[in-house]
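User: Continuing from earlier, I have the next pair ready.

Assistant: Great, send them over.

User: Here they are, in order.

Assistant: Folding the first of the pair now:
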Amino acid sequence: MLIETIQELAQRTADVICDLRRHPTDCKIPRSKIIAHRGAWDRQNIENTLQAFERARTLGAWAIELDIHFTKDNVAVVHHDPDLMRCHRHPGVLCDMSFKDLRANVPAVPTLEEVLALKNLHFMLEIKKALSPDQIKILQRQLPNWNPSRTFTCSLCNLN
């Protein structure tokens, strides 16, 4: 009951912000959709973790936005920052850590593969830095039969 109320409130708010209230309900303009930026996170659920993404889905999010980095041994992982200090209070830098070390020290950081296994969500992938040819191939293998814009979208940022 509370979830439906929250979804209705969010929908009405989005409609007002986008000024969709003046359009008839049978018009061709699609309804607003809820996107959970880094999942639904709070004090109990750290952003960009499986728990935050599961919670977003439970709350009715249509999509989740997530950030992709690679470990030293080229495992695609989901985390916003290049380092682990802000969210996990760990001094490690993702591109300098092996996945084995990352998993041993900060097990809450999921792999991209683990996140993509979640069902009934659209994925908005953000790539945080320029990729090597090997990393591009890794992403291509992890998204083989996916339909861009139907099952995922991708953006590139801060590619210096």
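And the other member of the pair:
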Amino acid sequence: MWTIPVERMKAGKEHRVPLSGAALAVLKQMHGIRHSDYVFPGGRDGRPLSEMTLLMLLRRMERGEITAHGFRSTFRDWAAERTNFPREVAEAALAHTIPDAVEAAYRRGDLFEKRKKLMAAWADYCGKTDTEGAGKIVSLAARKG
């Protein structure tokens, strides 16, 4: 589980993220090679990756039509169109707040166990190399030209 502290969240509420087996494998691999307290250290010692890192990667790949926020949108579209997970589970995974004050007052849980299953399904989907019926999947490692 990855816990994002309240001070880093827009909604002012701590957010727990269930980590899939694939995510845990990345963390384990990075633990063996990292050289700071950051899982993904930046170019300068003791600094995290810049907020611009993903955007610059996309630019170097000549993928200007893809945005960093588009990755969140892709997850949300996949959850809605390709799974049977309830809407509220996908919304909770994105740490979206419940706009209806009455509903928010009664929903006190964070759907963690259901989100754990959702994130495992997302990891499985992202790890697929067979694109039959999955639309166009673009490898981040691929280069144009």
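Worth noting for the second one:
The mean pLDDT is 85. Strands lie at 2-4, 15-17.
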